[in-house]
Amino acid sequence: MRVPTIFLFLAAFSLGVMAQDWRKMTDAELKGSVPAKAPVIKEQIETEFRTASGISNGKSNMLGVVIITAGYEADGKYTHFFRAGADVKLGDLDLAAGDYIFGYRRIDPDSLRVMFYQAKTGELVGELRASVERKKGGIYSFLIMPLSAKAGKIYIGRFFFDYSIK
Questions:
Q1: In a domain? residue 152
Q2: Measured between alpha carbons, how far is 63 from 164 in angstroms, rounded to an integer?
């Protein structure tokens, strides 16, 4: 009688683990999730959908997109809209589920300083360091790579930072 119980437990555990798998969002999922205009403080700023990237586990998602700040008072302070459907750790920065905006500044040839702000208030939440990617490959305005072994990478151009979902 123990063997069937163990198999049932393992089967249920496996299904639970598979349900937690994060994968790249489809174009249809992105179209249904990425706002045409992102909430940025007191503004609604247009997004550049072709730059959108996101991941989903079927229940929640995490996505980002470039925002078109020309004509707004962004002053280079923010360039992207970011939505976390779950608590996430970006580099050394812990973010609760929610909407954020972020911008970045070059520190040196090999790194960026990335600053995250609450989307609704513009309040600085924290910052992290993005490093240059030395591997050859495509360069994207913004890209969230699906998790592998509970960790992933987010790319801004040829720079990246690690993330994990809590």
A1: yes
A2: 14
